[in-house]
Design a protein that fits this description.
2 domains; binds magnesium ion; single chain; about 35% helix; six-stranded mixed β-sheet; alpha/beta; Rossmann fold; binds adenosine-5'-triphosphate
Length: about 270
């Protein structure tokens, strides 16, 4: 809870994850606890390899914690669910299906009638600005286009929770800005709970209700910045990306967040 009285949607309780390397086990995530409210947008930033994807994958039900538990609506997560849509760091499309068929896949699986499916597919193709590419196959698309299809496929299923792992990392700057604005707007209208990973401090501050900064490996939470609760950037959600990133409040926060990440990288000699 962050004091606004909305129910808790996701919770990690003392989560640690171990992996094996060269027959030794090492700690990738170290005792992380985090509670995310329904309708909240939480962004994780931290040095490369610190365990961000691994931590998110525990919520996806793809990685089991060695210690601790993860919950959705108070129930322990023990595997993947259609209610938690995942946008992976790498494009994950079916290469043998067209753009429209990729977006339609989950809807078909859930038994949604053809007419309704076509309408939803049309809406999301227009949102990702790929009209005219409905019948194209993934290998005929650029990297940015593929990632937009992957995002549309997850949005189209309207999951309660969106788990997004650097979803805009492979996009060019212009498309990225448009997708950030669209996501921010969709977040306001559709009110879904989002956990989002990025390397971009700008993106984190523009999108996040809270920004969670992780330490270098093994990942722990270093600091949480409650941007919305403390109203650190007034009216941000009603503003265009380019306007927000030039505000003094934004630049101050950016300096703070980047300073913390840099300190982690330098202290632990990652570079
Ligand atoms: N399935 C796995 N088996 C073994 N080691 C793994 C596995 N997945 C991740 N790791 C290791 O765990 C650590 C954390 O990886 P993770 O992918 O979670 O980091 P990350 O913070 O997402 O990094 P990046 O910012 O580069 O995406 C890394 O040292 C990585 O090599
Ligand atoms: Mg990652």
């Amino acid at each position: 809870m962050n004091g606004e009285g909305r129910p808790e949607k996701l919770r990690a309780q003392n989560v640690s994850v171990r992996f094996e390397k060269d027959e030794k086990s090492f700690l990738a995530v170290d005792d992380v606890s985090l509670s995310i409210q329904e309708g909240e947008f939480v962004v994780i930033v931290g040095p490369s390899g610190c365990g961000k994807t691994t931590f998110m994958n525990t919520f996806a039900g793809l990685v089991r914690p060695a210690k601790g538990k993860v919950y959705m609506d108070g129930e322990e997560i023990i595997g993947p669910s259609a209610e938690r849509g995942v946008v992976f760091q790498q494009f994950a499309l079916f290469p043998w299906k067209t753009v429209a068929e990729n977006i339609e896949f989950g809807l078909k699986y859930r038994g949604i009638p053809k007419g309704q499916r076509d309408e939803i597919v049309k809406k999301y193709i227009s949102l990702i600005k790929l009209e005219g590419f409905e019948k194209s196959y993934p290998h005929e698309l650029s990297g940015g286009m593929k990632q937009r299809v992957a995002i549309a496929r997850v949005y189209a299923n309207r999951p309660q929770v969106l788990l997004m792992d650097e979803p805009f990392g492979a996009l060019d700057a212009q498309t990225r800005t448009i997708m950030q604005e669209d996501l921010s707007e969709m977040f306001l209208t559709e009110k879904r709970t989002v956990l989002f990973i990025t390397h971009s401090v700008d993106e984190a501050i523009y999108l996040g209700d809270r920004v969670v900064i992780m330490t270098a490996r093994p990942g722990k939470i270093k600091k949480i910045i409650p941007i919305s609760r403390d109203n650190l950037i007034p009216n941000r959600r009603q503003m265009r990306y380019d306007d927000v990133v030039n505000l003094k409040e934004f630049l101050d926060l950016k300096g703070d967040v980047w300073g913390m990440i840099k300190a982690e990288i330098l202290e632990k000699h990652i570079l």
